[in-house]
């Protein structure tokens, strides 16, 4: 069976007690921005990460403040693991084997992860687990659109926590809820100047959402595929380490690439541990694309093409040339709302409306980020999805 279908059936089973009728959709939302009402949980705080500090010290400020939330989150993962394998063996394995694995990770990631473990007091193996988690269970929506003036606007919903324990009473995903307090905006500086900014989870050193001001914007979405991630990750553990962790690549591109074209080339050509979608926006007209990746290479690049009337590109978690899985069609509602908005009216305000329309907004949505490259602007908001709402 397609792993995707399998995963969704598994997840469907785990939420049978939720009263929902899939697919739950609604008319395109309007007047949601500035964020307000029951789908807006709160703003996201900013922290500075000083790249001039030694890697092991960079996260001290963030982690000192978010320590309790991080410990709670990791405890929730452990509870789930122990519910799954009651002997406690799974976590024992994590505590014994993953600290060995940290030595195989490239720097600065290795030293940063060790620093986070030291400051938080969380065992090293569990911090590693937290850091590889996202490579596996992230479902999202990303869109890059061009307005009539040639400005690129990039928006995304980060949906995380599928299969991670359904809380029957609260009708929510346990891990998604625990992640919300960990959402932070980060300003990465060198010589006291911003190099890039991102929305992230405290304790996580890779990047899923970021902007290099005036140059490019980047998000990553998970691609479920048979030539799948788990094989690459297994190979890494077994010692064959020629691919790159996906969210380490996005971080390194944000840090080191100096143009849209350079970023695109690195994202398309670097060998990965698992398939992925990279959604990239540039600083000039026509510069927006979805790069569909296998582990080895770029299979397809879909670009904004105004001549063809394609003023935006949008990606959820399915190859754009195929139909989305029928129980998880966030693409059609998102495109419907983008089409209704029209290029003439696209802005942070209308992009936020699109990302606030169920099921683009769903029970897994932890945050919404909006980025505008020409102004170097990144805004993010913690989200809620009150009933009735799709679990994904
Ligand atoms: C469920 O909701 C209640 C009330 O809103 C809250 O106190 C509790 O922490 C929630 N539980 C979880 C696991 O999120
Ligand atoms: C860094 O920049 C900020 C604002 O741009 C300024 O207030 C601060 O003094 C600078 N710090 C150093 C060490 O240059
Ligand atoms: C766009 O990016 C390129 C490459 O970094 C840079 O040379 C150029 O100045 C940028 N253009 C604008 C309008 O910021
Ligand atoms: C949105 O518009 C595009 C381009 O005209 C079209 O290909 C697509 O089918 C439309 N999608 C929806 C859901 O309306
Ligand atoms: C676009 O915005 C204009 C001005 O705010 C408004 O009159 C028009 O109805 C909007 N068009 C759509 C399709 O929403």
Automatic annotation (TrEMBL):
Domain of life: Eukaryota
Subcellular location: Lysosome; Secreted
Acid ceramidase N-terminal domain span: 42-104
One term of GO molecular function: N-acylsphingosine amidohydrolase activity
Domain (Choloylglycine hydrolase/NAAA C-terminal) ranges: 140-377
UniProt catalytic activity: an N-acylsphing-4-enine + H2O = sphing-4-enine + a fatty acid
UniProt xrefs under InterPro entries: Acid_ceramidase-like (IPR016699), Acid_ceramidase_N (IPR029130), CBAH/NAAA_C (IPR029132)
Gene Ontology CC terms: extracellular region; lysosome; membrane
Residue numbers annotated as active site: 140 (nucleophile)
Principal localisation: other
EC number: 3.5.1.23
GO terms for biological process, alphabetical: fatty acid metabolic process; sphingolipid metabolic process
Keywords, ordered alphabetically: Disulfide bond, Glycoprotein, Hydrolase, Lipid metabolism, Lysosome, Secreted, Signal, Sphingolipid metabolism
Signal peptide: 1-18
Pfam family, one: NAAA-beta
The protein's annotated pathway: Lipid metabolism; sphingolipid metabolism; Sphingolipid metabolism
Family statement: Belongs to the acid ceramidase family.
Protein name per the record: Acid ceramidase
Organism: Channa argus
């Amino acid at each position: 069976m397609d792993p995707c279908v399998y995963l969704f059936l598994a997840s469907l089973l785990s939420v049978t007690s939720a009263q929902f009728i899939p697919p739950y959709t609604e008319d395109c939302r309007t007047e949601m921005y500035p964020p307000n009402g029951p789908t807006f949980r709160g703003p996201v705080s900013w922290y500075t990460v000083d790249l001039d500090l030694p890697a092991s010290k960079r996260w001290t400020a963030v982690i000192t403040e978010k320590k309790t939330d991080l410990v709670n989150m990791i405890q929730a993962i452990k509870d789930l693991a122990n519910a799954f394998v009651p002997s406690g063996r799974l976590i024992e394995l994590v505590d014994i084997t993953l600290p060995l694995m940290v030595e195989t990770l490239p720097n600065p990631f290795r030293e940063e992860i060790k620093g986070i473990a030291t400051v938080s007091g969380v065992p090293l193996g569990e911090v590693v687990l937290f850091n590889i988690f996202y490579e596996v269970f992230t479902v999202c929506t990303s869109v890059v659109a061009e307005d009539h003036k040639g400005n690129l606007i990039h928006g995304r919903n980060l949906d995380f926590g599928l299969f991670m324990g359904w809380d029957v009473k609260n009708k929510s995903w346990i891990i998604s809820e625990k992640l919300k307090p960990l959402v932070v905006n980060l300003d990465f500086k060198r010589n006291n100047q911003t190099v890039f900014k991102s929305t992230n989870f405290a304790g996580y050193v890779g990047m899923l959402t970021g902007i290099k001001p005036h140059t490019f914007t980047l998000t990553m979405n998970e691609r479920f595929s048979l030539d799948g991630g788990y094989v690459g990750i297994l190979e890494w553990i077994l010692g064959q380490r020629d691919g790159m962790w996906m969210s380490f690549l996005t971080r390194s591109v944000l840090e080191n690439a100096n143009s849209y074209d350079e970023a695109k080339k690195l994202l398309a050509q670097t060998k990965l541990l698992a398939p992925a979608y990279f959604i990239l926006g540039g600083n000039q007209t026509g510069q927006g694309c979805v790069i569909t990746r296998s582990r080895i290479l770029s299979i397809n690049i879909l670009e904004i093409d105004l001549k063809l009337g394609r003023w935006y590109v949008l990606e959820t978690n399915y190859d754009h040339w195929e139909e989305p899985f029928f129980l998880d069609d966030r693409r059609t509602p998102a495109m419907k709302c983008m089409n209704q908005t029209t290029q003439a009216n696209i802005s942070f305000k209308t992009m936020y409306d699109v990302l606030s329309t169920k099921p683009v907004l769903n029970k897994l949505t932890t945050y919404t980020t909006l980025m505008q490259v020409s102004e170097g602007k990144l805004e993010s908001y913690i989200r809620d999805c009150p009933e009735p709402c799709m679990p994904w």
